[in-house]
Amino acid sequence: MKKYDVYGIGNALVDLVFEVDEKFLVDHQVEKGLMTLVEEDRQNQLINAIDIHENMMKGGGSAANTVVATSQFGGRCYYSCKVSNDNFGQFFLKDLAHNKVDTKLTKETAPDGITGKCLVMTTPDAERTMNTFLGITSDFSVQEIDEEAIKQSKYIYSEGYLVPSPSGREAMLKAMQVARAHDVKIALSFSDPSMVKFFKNEMQEVVGDGIDLLFCNEEEAMLYTETENLADAREALKKIAKRFAITLGKNGAIIFDGDTFIDIEPYKVDAIDTNGAGDMFAGAFMFGVTNGHSYAEAGKIASLASSKVVSQFGPRLDKSLMEEILKKAIPQD
Fold first, then answer.
1. What phi and psi, each to the nearest 5 degrees, are found at residue 307?
2. Is 128 domain-assigned?
3. Helix (H, G, I), strand (E, B), or coil: what is residue 138?
4. Average of pLDDT values for 196-223?
5. 58-68 in b/e burial notation, b at 16+ Cβ within 10 A?
6. What CATH number is associated with residue 179?
7. Are strands 241-247 and 13-19 parallel, antiparallel or unpaired?
8. Is the pLDDT of residue 122 over 90?
9. Does some domain include residue 173?
């Protein structure tokens, strides 16, 4: 029996989440709706303009959000990442421990440096804009990979945000090599349209001859496959992924289980913050497929969980909601 359901690989960031109006984005020349990498000085300018408080701090990073969600549902998870020994780094490690996610990093072994931070700016239309200073996580490399933990996992899961970094990409490829050698399945998220649009060649290198499970949204699917509609995109994705999930926002999702397409109905909510919706979908879905649920059932769990996360601020849910989500998504006779 495998020790872990999911071994996650990704950035370690402390999210600073707050609400802004359209004027703030215009005044500070922030491009709306995208994840933009920025220098520390630029991020500090925005932090000073907002007056950040401690209660705005949340554990973050795309793949981290996903493995935390899987763990909160009852899955067993491990996370490979890199933080420094500063206060933000200690906050991140405590957050992983609180959510029962294993990692080999400790307070004593974390190196000197600056832990990465992501400013998540949410406007009244629920659009989220992110300005990210990667800090020490930009040095994420094969040194952070734990081969023994990979061997003891059902899946490895990587975030697309690592693709622009040569050392991060090398780490992804190393983890995939270990996984293939020990019959561990490989899951990947495209993470953001910008990762597919501006780093297409690097993403293709990571995808290689194909992966077991892909997560993407409609825009990412069409960008990667260079198609103009969803029908063509999903057919093209069959060539690179044995199975995949395409999220469609308020229209639900489409799951390909290896044989057939499954339409996943949305749960209607008033969205106030879309930050983390894709991460939550992937985390809930990964829990489902590694814990005895069918792909259709996993899709229902993921759809309901992501609907809950967009109806609040922040990319994570309180663990107390997970049992309720499972009961509602998969009613027991």
1. -65, -35
2. no
3. helix
4. 97
5. bbbbbbbbbbb
6. 3.40.1190.20
7. unpaired
8. no
9. yes
